[in-house]
Specification:
Elements (H helix, E strand, L loop, with lengths): L11 E2 L1 E6 L5 E6 L2 E5 L4 E7 L5 H9 L1 E6 L5 H9 L7 H4 L4 E3 L6 E3 L4 E13 L2 E13 L12 H4 L2 E4 L4 E4 L38 H12 L9 H21 L5 H12 L8 E2 L3 E3 L5 E3 L4 E2 L3 E4 L4 E3 L4 E2 L4 E3 L1 E3 L9 E3 L2 E3 L4 E2 L4 E3 L3 E2 L4 E2 L4 E2 L7 E4 L4 E5 L1
Parallel strand pairs: 13-16, 14-17, 15-18, 16-19, 17-20, 18-23, 19-24, 20-25, 23-26, 24-27, 25-28, 27-29
Antiparallel strand pairs: 1-11, 2-3, 2-6, 4-5, 5-10, 6-9, 7-8, 9-10, 11-12, 21-22, 29-30
Helix pairs in contact: 6-7
Length: 399
């Protein structure tokens, strides 16, 4: 069926924009056209119908800022009222018993009864068709305790936001959580890249659960330093984990993420939680991901590469410079065994500093408090409290 043209994008969040007029009176207007438009800087777009005189629109233009709150489904009647009544006729917020608090970073009213509100500074406006689009840089977020999960992040299922269908002119509530972005599609990674059709298969958030036992066995085999021959089930598991690592590192390396989000993503990459003191500057690259562990207070600078199938253990307080390579794999020397893999764990003991562009090869242990000079290629163990430099790296100083 072909339908007549309509702005059919659904579901959309219901937003309530608030601003002070020139006399300091708070006004609010419910909006159906709300969306993100940038991560750097974090920016939201709202659109207000400008075919008639709108008090909230005029107040936002005059003040240069606004707050954007998101009502719950049990606040649908109040939200609907704020969209159909005019602020020129009545004090709309008082009529529904809502109160406001002055924003922290902008001169805009924050509705106390809403669980999530963004404080925004106007960075641009444009008139298009029936609406005025307003772009607001997000300066801070107000979130009530009821919508914060155990990790300290807002949880949409707890926020229970009200949704809007412009085509049917109906309100809806948010449905159930389906799965994590950049994870559900990993089952298809690599398919269709040679021009063939992408096979449709059952895929979901639990796609890789069947591999957990196999992965545990593979990691134990790697810890023993055993070989993995090409064409074996273990070798195929390497390939699947590599595709998953590509997906997670792509998420890490795309856009801006705060420290908490980077810790979450890196934890997903390595399959275990990293300490709170862990810090990472993207981009970062990993061939496998699941055989990395990091201690407390570890810092990894941008551009580092982890060929971690053989295992990379980074102790407490280590600092890793730009574009350091951890290479835990060798190949067979004989041509007929060139695709066979030989593994060796790399271990950095506590408080090691690795300079930029250094390469550390398989089987190496770097003793505590040591320094790897920039550009060094480390092929053998480093004693504690030593400085090594060169290609191959040799001890040049004892600390």
């Amino acid at each position: 069926m072909i339908l007549p043209p309509k702005a059919l994008v659904y579901p959309m969040p219901v937003g309530i924009a608030t601003a002070y007029d020139h006399e300091g009176r708070a006004d609010a207007c419910t909006l159906g056209f709300v969306g993100m438009c940038s991560h750097v800087p974090e920016t939201v777009m709202i659109a207000i119908n400008s075919t008639a005189r709108r008090k909230t629109l005029e107040s936002i233009k005059e003040s240069g800022c606004f707050a954007l709150g998101f009502p719950r489904k049990d606040q649908a009647a109040q939200a609907d009222y704020l969209g159909i009544e005019s602020g020129y006729r009545t004090d709309k917020l008082a009529a529904i018993g809502y109160t406001v608090t002055e924003g922290r970073d902008v001169h805009a009213p924050v509705i106390d009864q809403l669980d999530v509100t963004l404080e925004c500074r106007v960075v641009g406006t444009t008139d298009f068709g029936s609406h005025t689009q307003i772009f607001g840089e997000i300066l801070c977020i107000h979130a009530s305790d009821r919508v914060i999960d155990e990790s300290g992040r807002p949880d949409m299922s707890l926020a229970d936001p009200l949704m809007y269908d412009d085509y049917g002119m109906q309100y809806y509530s948010l449905g159930e959580k389906v799965g994590r972005v950049a994870k559900l599609g990993r089952a298809f990674l690599g398919k269709g890249r040679d021009g063939g059709d992408v096979a449709v298969a059952d895929a979901g958030p639990d796609q890789h659960q069947g591999d957990e036992g196999a992965l545990k066995g593979l990691l134990e085999k790697l810890d023993r330093g055993e070989e993995v021959a090409s064409g074996t089930p273990e070798f195929e598991l390497f390939d699947r984990c590599a595709r998953e690592a590509q997906a997670v590192t792509a998420a890490i390396n795309t856009g801006y993420h705060d420290e908490a989000e980077l810790r979450r993503l890196f934890s997903e990459l390595i399959g275990k939680d990293v300490p709170q003191g862990f810090r990472l500057f993207p981009p970062v690259y990993a061939d496998f991901g699941k055989n990395i562990s990091v201690g407390e207070g570890v810092f990894i600078n941008s551009g580092c590469c982890f060929q971690d199938q053989g295992g990379v253990r980074i102790g407490d307080g280590c600092q890793i410079g730009h574009q350091v390579v951890f290479a835990t794999i060798d190949h067979g020397m004989e041509p007929e065994h060139r695709h066979d893999l030989h593994f060796g764990r790399i271990t950095l003991e506590e408080n090691v500093w690795v300079g930029s562009h250094a390469t550390i090869l398989r089987g190496v242990t770097v003793g505590h408090d040591s320094i790897i000079a920039a550009g060094a290629v480390v092929t053998r163990d480093v004693p504690p409290r030593s400085v090594v430099a060169g290609v191959p790296a040799r001890v040049v100083k004892t600390i």
